[in-house]
Each structure stands twice: as C-alpha cells, then as structure tokens.
Amino acid sequence: VGGKGGVGKTTVASSLALLASNNGRKVLLVSTDPAHSLGDMFDEEIGDKEVSMGTNLWALEIDSEREADSHISSVKQSMKALVSPKMYIEIDRQLDLARHSPGAVEAAVLERVAELMSLGGELYDLVIFDTAPTGHTIRLLSLPQVITAWVEGLLNHQGRSKGLGTLLDSLGKDKEKSSDHAMLDFFESERKVQRNKEITRILRLRRDKFHEARQLLIDPDAVGFLLVLNPERLPIMESKKAYDALCGFGIEICGLVINKALPDELTGGFLEGRIKQQSYHLSQIAREFKGVRSIQLGLLEKDVQGIKMLKITAGMLAAAISSSKIL
Fold first, then answer.
1. What is the DSSP-derived secondary structure letter of residue 103?
2. How far apart are the first and last CA of the chain?
3. pLDDT by residue for the chain (327 residues), tens digit each?
4. Which end of the chain has fewer CB atoms at under 10 Å, N or C?
5. What is an example of a GO molecular function annotated in this UniProt entry (predicted)?
C-alpha cells in the first residue's frame, strides 16, 4: 500500500489488514516508513518484532536505523574473517563511512523486506506493507534490480581478476625456490583460494536474495501494489509518476483507493465549490489511470484512530471492494 504522504496509506493498510484477519486470514501488517504511525493508528506499542494485534493479525514496524547498523555489523564480521587482523581498523573505518552513504539504509531495509516476503508467505496468508511516501518507496523497490546487477558486476570482475592473478603467478614463478619457500607459496595460494571462494559465496547469496525479492515483486499472483490518493491535484500527479515507475519495474498495480472523498449531497457555497473541484479531479483520475480498478472512501467526521474507528473504515472497504472486485 503506497502513495503520497498524508493521503491515508496507514489507514487503508490497517483497515485492509483488519478486514482480512476478520475474514479468517492470518495477516502480518508491516510498516516500512521511517516515520512509523501503525502504533498510533492502533493505539498500541508496536516495535521491530511481530506483535499480536488481535485474532489472526500481527504487526511490526521496521526500524531502518537498526537494520542498517545490523547490516554493517554483519558485513564487518564477514570481511574480518577474510583478512589479517592488521586490516581490522581500516575495515571499521571504511564501513562506518559506508553506513551513512546514500542508499545504505534503503538497502538494509530491503533485506528485511525481502526476508519478510519470503518467510512471511510461509507463516501468513497475507503480508501487507504500509510503505513510506512515494519517492522513498520507489527507490526501495528499484533496489533489487540495481543491487542484483551490481553484484553480478562484482562477480564478473572477481572472475577476471582471479584469472589474471593465476596468469601472473605462473609467469612469476621461480623454479629455483627452496622447498620451504614452495610450501609457503602453496599455503598462501590456498588461503587466497579459500578467501575468494568465501567472497563468491557471500556475493552469490546476496544476489540470490535480491533476485528472489525481484521475482516476487513482479509476480502478479503473489504481489499487488495498491495506490492510495486523494481527489486533489498534487496527489494525482505524484500517484501517476508512481504508477508509471511501478509499471516500469513490472509490478502489478491491483487498484486505486481514492480516499477522503466528499459526499455529493453536501450543500453550502464553500462545500459545493469543493465538490465541483473534486468532480473534476475524479474525472482526471479516470483518464490518467484508465483501466485501473478503483474504489472511493468517504471523508469521515473524525480522525481514524483505534480499533473502533478502524472497524468502521474496514466496513467501508469491505463494501467498496465487494462492488469493485479490486482485490
């Protein structure tokens, strides 16, 4: 579930999760937004581990900073196993810098998302991701393709370097070396072989993990993206950009939720003006997203917070979904 900030993504995701769980499906609701609001929505404390929110419903909020720290720590441990102790300080320095580089947090979050997509499908009937605002989510969803290509490049480069190293070693061999020197060369060569094997194993593991995430994302039978927007100019523009980007990635757009729509029967000069403008924007949505199924959720008198209000929005979703067959 995604869209522009403030359009009601968390409301829709939470209501959808509650609706599905009430219908007997085991549901995991996950927030990938660094500015989490699931806990506020349910009036419950939700952390980085699954928390039961009621019958058939669990929730968690991915801690992006913690994921990044954990990822860097894991990389440090792997690298230190491959080099001499005198290199440890330099490894720490370089990776501490990498921790704050662009994309580091997104890559770490994506690893957790990939894990939840893979394992979640075995433990739950439905996993719903309440995503960050559009731009952040687009960057996140583009990473499997980017990282897979990057790792493939590293593996190819490593293969070429290995071949060149073997050639240079053979050209530089001294046939007059003592048996002691020959033995040292043998152990050094064996150490390099084992190190290269471990590097290759780590790179392939990472490549396969993101490749699996990519394959899941583009499988319309497994994953669908629900765009939430308001019948207003800016949300429509941003949603269209997101729609085009997601289609470019091969991700199925299963429908639109047009949230906070004003009822047509409202009267009064100000409200009639707003309804007229809304009518224009609804027509624009129909043009821009031709062929995409959509439902409308009306603007409520009160803010949606707590199970009581979520049950109301879940009921509205149920009625709208049954008439549109959006999901």
1. T
2. 12
3. 999 989 999 999 999 999 999 999 999 999 998 888 899 999 999 999 999 999 999 999 999 888 888 878 887 887 777 777 888 888 888 888 878 877 778 778 888 888 888 877 789 999 999 988 777 777 777 776 666 676 666 667 655 555 545 544 554 555 555 555 555 454 455 566 676 777 777 777 777 877 787 888 888 888 889 999 999 999 999 999 999 999 988 888 999 999 999 988 877 888 889 999 999 999 999 999 999 999 999 998 889 999 999 999 999 988 887 665 555
4. C
5. ATP hydrolysis activity
Q: What CA–CA distance (Å, rounded) separates 209 from 201?
A: 12
> Which residue from 139, 108, 129 is spatially nearest to 245, judged by alpha carbons?
139
**How far is Cα of residue 145 from the mean position of the Cα atoms in its chain?**
13
Interatomic CA distance for residues 19 and 5, integer angstroms: 23
According to DSSP, residue 47 is labeled -
**What's the CATH number of domain 2-66+103-148+220-324, 3.20.20.70, 3.40.1190.20, 3.40.50.300, 3.40.50.620?**
3.40.50.300
Q: Is 251 helix (H, G, I), strand (E, B) or coil?
A: coil
Residue 289 neighbours by CB distance under 10 Å: 20
